[in-house]
Specification:
Blueprint lengths: L21 H20 L3 E2 L5 E3 H8 L4 H6 L2 E3 L5 E4 L4 H10 L9 E10 L11 E10 L4 H17 L5 E7 L6 H12 L8 H9 L10 H8 L10 H17 L4 E2 L11 E9 L7 E7 L3 H4 L7 E7 H10 L10 E6 L2 H16 L3 E3 L7 H10 L4 E5 L1 H6 L1 E6 L5 E5 L3 H7 L7
Parallel strand pairs: 1-5, 7-8, 12-13, 12-14
Antiparallel strand pairs: 2-4, 3-4, 5-6, 6-11, 7-9, 9-10, 10-11, 14-15, 15-16
Helix pairs in contact: 1-5, 5-9
């Protein structure tokens, strides 16, 4: 029996997702490697959590009234009848792991970082996808204002190490739990005269959680805030002193920042210090990183009262910024092409290539080619930095030609001395 299809079957990438192709992944790997390096300098260690959790975890941590919970989470019921959700952010999962693995029993702070995919059902736009990737860091256990400043400094160090320009830090205090009711009253008093101008959704927000108005992107709400609202007068003395200490430490560390008195973060769990790092090169969606202190989240999901501070940034948006500023992956490693001319040379080249790989050198070949010119064309197309040419005469006298593809210069090197030759030029993994 034969089946005839009028049109070929096609499978396209789903809306809000993206294939990261090999020519793009080098920059992703560069950012990830740089983040791991900077984090290690501050003694942070990686934690990996599942990509799905109980839906109730995110409802409790993020807030039932948030847009993330109400509109954006990918939820499903598994075969055991459990209500699960793909993680929309990383902090809730890390907090759950902190409790589930009894990390509170360990002495000192838990200094953790993560990287991986997150999921939100929202309208795709530049640098924002339904499956996106975040790198985040959490310090669980320290209430000291130096921790706030140190983590903001770490974040700034990471972005400057990536050679990003036009990035600015904005910081504020949203107050401690002790002054939350004072802040709530302050918000209600300020906005109550303007509720007739609110949409129905804004009126509901005002009734249920008025603090969320401060994070509104609505231009009318933003104009009302800019017209004279500020949080500082509603803060307790302890909250003011904590924030003053944070800014003093930032000054000591030489980290530039802007005090933004109305900056808040969109998640309910933040207390005291909050911050964002923005770039004007991204247009209206200019935030590339955000975070702050969350002193009661661990308690709110059933653990002991535990202070914490963290941040996260989206890789897609950061990659977009790096590309717009013409930043490339720092890839100084040699890419070596093996041009073996004829079957005896191909056989000998196998062990030579393996020795190079064992020394940490990237080496590859095209086994379908036997003549020099096709080999060199393949080396050029593959952007090899060097080519090794092994013909019958070289094989007979135990040598190999090393050709620099950029300068066209070449050396004849003993096969036995090939690894020391590369090592002398700083191209092996030991360097």
């Amino acid at each position: 029996m034969f089946f005839i299809y009028d049109e070929p079957m096609t499978h396209t990438v789903l809306r809000g997702t993206k294939d990261i192709l090999p020519e793009e992944s080098a920059l992703w790997q560069h950012v990830e490697a740089q983040a791991r390096h900077i984090f290690s300098l501050y003694d942070y260690k990686e934690i990996r959590t599942p990509i799905f959790e109980l839906e109730s975890l995110f409802n409790r941590v993020i807030g039932d009234e948030s847009d993330i919970v109400q509109k954006e989470m990918y939820t499903f019921t598994d075969k055991g009848g459990r209500e699960l959700a793909l993680r929309p952010e990383g902090t809730a999962a890390v907090a759950r792991a902190y409790l589930a693995n009894h990390m509170s029993r360990q002495s000192g702070e838990s200094k953790l970082y993560y990287l991986g995919p997150m999921f939100r059902y929202e309208r795709p736009q530049s640098g924002r996808y339904r499956q996106f990737h975040q790198i985040g860091l959490e310090n669980i256990g320290s209430a000291h204002p130096h921790t706030d400043a140190e983590i903001i400094s770490l974040c700034y160090q990471l972005f400057t190490s990536l050679n990003l320009s036009n990035v600015r830090i904005h910081i504020n205090s949203v107050g401690s739990e002790a002054c939350r009711e004072s802040i709530r009253k302050h918000v209600i008093d300020y906005f109550s005269a303007h509720t007739k101008q609110f949409s129905e959704q804004q009126k509901q927000t005002f009734e249920k959680n008025p603090l969320r108005l401060l994070d509104s992107k609505d231009k009318h709400i933003q104009a009302l805030i800019a017209d004279g609202f500020e949080l500082k007068s509603a803060l307790s003395e302890d909250a003011r002193q904590h924030f003053q200490s944070v800014t003093a430490y930032l000054d000591t560390l030489g980290v530039p920042y802007t005090y933004s008195p109305n900056l808040v973060r969109g998640l309910d769990y933040y207390t005291d210090t909050v911050f964002e790092i923005i770039s004007d090169d991204l247009g209206s969606q200019n935030s590339i990183c955000g975070g702050g202190r969350y002193n009661h989240l661990i308690r709110d999901i059933g653990g002991p009262d535990t202070p914490a501070f963290g941040f996260a940034f989206g890789l897609e948006r950061l990659i977009l910024l790096l590309e717009s500023q013409k930043q490339a992956a720092n890839n100084s490693k040699a890419r070596v092409y093996m041009a073996a001319l004829g079957e005896p040379c191909k056989k000998a080249s196998i062990s030579i290539m393996q020795q190079l790989r064992n020394a940490g050198i990237c080496v590859f070949t095209d086994h379908s080619k036997s003549d020099l010119n096709p080999h060199l064309k393949r080396a050029n197309k593959s952007k090899a930095t060097m080519a090794l040419i092994l013909g019958d005469s070289e094989l007979n006298d135990g040598t190999i030609i090393v050709k620099n593809m950029a300068s066209n210069s070449q050396d004849r090197v003993s096969i036995e001395a090939l690894i020391p030759y590369f090592d002398s030029q700083g191209l092996t993994c030991s360097k």
